[in-house]
Amino acid sequence: MRAVLELTRRRARNARFARARAVVGARARAADAQELRDDSKGGSSVDKATSTAAEARETAHTLEGFREALRHGPGFDDFVRGDVAYSVPAPKSLKDKTTRKPAWLKREVPGGERYTEIKSKLRELKLATVCEEAKCPNLGECWGGGDGKTATATIMIMGDTCTRGCRFCAVKTAKAPPPLDKDEPANVSKAIAAWGLDYVVLTSVDRDDIEDQGAGHFRETVQRLKASCDVLVEALTPDFRGEKHLVELVATSGLDVFAHNVETVPELQRDVRDRRANWDQSIEVLKHAKKSGAKITKTSIMLGLGETHEQVVNALKLLREADVDVVTFGQYMRPTKKHLAVVEYVTPEAFKRYQEIAEEMGFLYVASGAMVRSSYKAGEFFLANVIKQRKAKEAAAAN
Fold first, then answer.
1. Which family does the similarity line name?
2. How confident is the model at residue 154 (pLDDT cuts 50, 70, 90)?
3. How many domains does the chain divide into?
């Protein structure tokens, strides 16, 4: 008799628990249906306020459902005895959400003869590119050399493993990466000479594990390039922990453009970058490079990380005060779910407005668009013309 009563109680508890789960499921499905309706009306452009309100309602429903399940569901003893098999898949609306990309961010899958040729040569010479390591969305366009333009690739020297861990970056990290490849400067110059490029971007990982943080290696690579072929060189450098003699070592190597990225507005530096990097340090790097003789300095800012319009405008003012010549704006794209989430996808109209503001401030060149990156062939084409014109004027003045 006691066993029959116990069995009846268990069945009653299980029935109540099933009803509670049904309530949670029904509410989740209703939230999913609402989300689909929103998407059909232009959900990808729903503003932050609407999105936040929907998430708040969903959270309230979820908490209420869980409380009901706890009140009426099986007890701990039921789970211990194995009377209840509890395995319920998470409703779609409760899973980790990824902000949906708008249409203007779509790109074709990379391919083509030129793309294959560059990739093959890189593998042969054991060279890395930031295009691949950072999962750049423009890889196919730049390597493929579309629209009759020269194909470009940004070579990443000093290995493919960084000693820092910025929260936006997909490059591998380690406290002590493999040693530098002494043959790399020669291999880089060999590859560039074979491609016949007239503008090349060199960038690197951070190497805090090396005494000079790789500044000497960077300098040698630039000098070998300049000696082996007629090429304009842009160096996109680390901050070298703000050590000015190391910045100067690279700035006086013979490069044509000294680039160092501030990445985001001052207010978001601690959230976005490695703790060893900061706005003031990066500004000092750019200032000292110009003082050391770099004729053109350049930086880049990612948008979509939660920055405000006022913060972006203020950042531009500070960059002009530091005598920075070139600035680029691009949309932050989350490499994996382990990285910072995208707060918003900035519209093409907003990118255009930032470009206008920067140009009014007197920057030599501004590239602003969702798919623009610090190393992007449209900007390189413009800078190549600027540099050639300056050299022609200098030669004419000398005569």
1. Belongs to the radical SAM superfamily. Lipoyl synthase family.
2. confident
3. 1
